[in-house]
Amino acid sequence: MSPTKVTKGKSLPKLRTEGGQDVKPSGWARRLKHQLYGPISESTTRLKTMKSLREPVVRDMTAAEFESQLRHRRKLDAALVQVVGTPSYSPCDNCEADCSPFTSCMVAQDELGGACANCYWNGKSRTCLFSSCSVKFIMDIMKGALQPEEKPLEGDIETNQFKKSFLEDVINKAQKSFDTITALSQLRVSLEEITRSALQLKAGIKEAQEFLEKMKIETVEDEDEEHGEHEEHEKDEEDEEDEKNGTNGTKGKHEA
């Protein structure tokens, strides 16, 4: 690979394919920090303020290909983690399978949802061993907590300190996620109960309306019937009065 690649009239830094996590920061580390590739996220801003520790080292990609991929915000963040992040205490499954763009498995606390840069670049955050959403990671933590603590060698102290801090952070995030899921589940149950109560109330109101409507109809019918009986009674009284008046008139004529 040549020292530089040229795209759109501009020279790109040499993109390393060897050296792993030990390549000191240079051209690409600076470019990733200062080049504007498009809209950036809060995570991008935070990563750009962190100290550069190394150059990104890829498996099989040209500088021009790498540059074109950085237009995607997710991949830009992943590349920045390669520059400012910390080597994971052991490669995740995706990194070990050599199906990732970078040669090293890097993570950054509180960034990328806990996923390593390779998985984040490939859009596989949820299956990454280090993701706060990974059940496998939580199970591995629980298993590791039951194992006797090994005395670290002098050269491993920094790595083990990071491992402890990283695991504590992920456990806290996992607990918060679990608490959130539990709360949402309880809220869902409450909403279902409220919905059922509302439906029952609606049904009760409908039954009450139907009952009142029925009572109204029956009341009108009773009033009509009562009114009819009253009119009939008045007619009978009038007939009796007429008949009485007629009888009195006839009697008066005979007396005369």
Automatic annotation (TrEMBL):
InterPro entries: DUF3716. Residues 1-25, 216-256 are annotated as: Disordered. Residues 234-243 have a biased composition (Acidic residues). This is Uncharacterized protein. It comes from Penicillium alfredii.
